[in-house]
Write a structure and sequence with these properties.
By secondary structure, the protein is of the alpha+beta class. It contains 3 helices and 10 strands; from the N terminus they run H-E-H-E-E-E-E-E-H-E-E-E-E. This is DUF5626 domain-containing protein.
């Protein structure tokens, strides 16, 4: 009976030793996010036939520039083009969980990751930030969280840390203004989250 108990104890000890040893919590944390991993909103680049009115500030500034000889100034805008203008990455890179092998390390093992990204706008947008956002089908100026999904393998006694950064696309939105029949283009540039870019470093 004693031999059986000793054999059982040795088998249990062997099993426990073979389990992956991680420096972070062993619980897989599934964060509450606005969008799951890989589910970022698709930017709407379809034709927009809406005729937009200028903001009050825009009317006042254009009135000084144009100074028409006859009648009131009336401004309307049409979004004539929406296109990808470039791609970028947010720096510095963000720190993820770390761990020691043997085993695997998942980015979702950390409960303190900063998964937020805020879409931003620059350039000229006389029709207003809200109209640009609505036409693209996204939000601007609102922090949103995006799910993460990345796992690496750790060799015995190997210690690594996951790092990640946001990949975003810059979209150029052309707004053509018709001021008493005179067309002029204005360009807004919107940085929109696309996905997370992952890597790891040795510790």
């Amino acid at each position: 009976m004693k031999r059986i108990r000793l054999l059982y104890f040795r088998m249990l000890l062997t099993f426990l030793i073979s389990l992956p040893i991680l420096a972070e919590s062993s619980e897989i944390y599934q964060p509450n996010v606005d969008y799951g991993a890989g589910d970022a909103p698709t930017v709407d680049l379809s034709e927009d036939n809406t005729m937009y009115e200028a903001t009050n500030e825009e009317i006042e500034s254009k009135a000084v520039e144009i100074k028409p000889a006859y009648g009131p100034i009336h401004f309307t805008y049409k979004i004539t083009n929406k296109e990808i203008w470039g791609v970028g990455y947010s720096y510095p890179e963000r720190s993820g969980p770390s761990g020691r092998g043997p085993g695997t390390l998942s980015i979702n093992e950390s409960t303190t990751l900063n998964r937020e990204f805020t879409n931003t706008i620059s350039g000229e947008y006389p029709i207003g930030q809200g109209n640009i956002a609505a036409s693209l089908g996204i939000t601007i100026g609102v922090a949103q969280t995006h799910g993460t999904s990345y796992t690496i393998t750790l060799a015995a006694n190997e210690r690594k840390q996951i790092i990640f950064k946001a990949k975003y696309y810059t979209y150029r939105v052309t707004q053509r203004v018709y001021a008493n029949g005179l067309p002029t283009n204005n360009y807004a540039y919107v940085d929109v989250f696309d996905s997370w870019d992952y890597d790891w470093i040795k510790l």
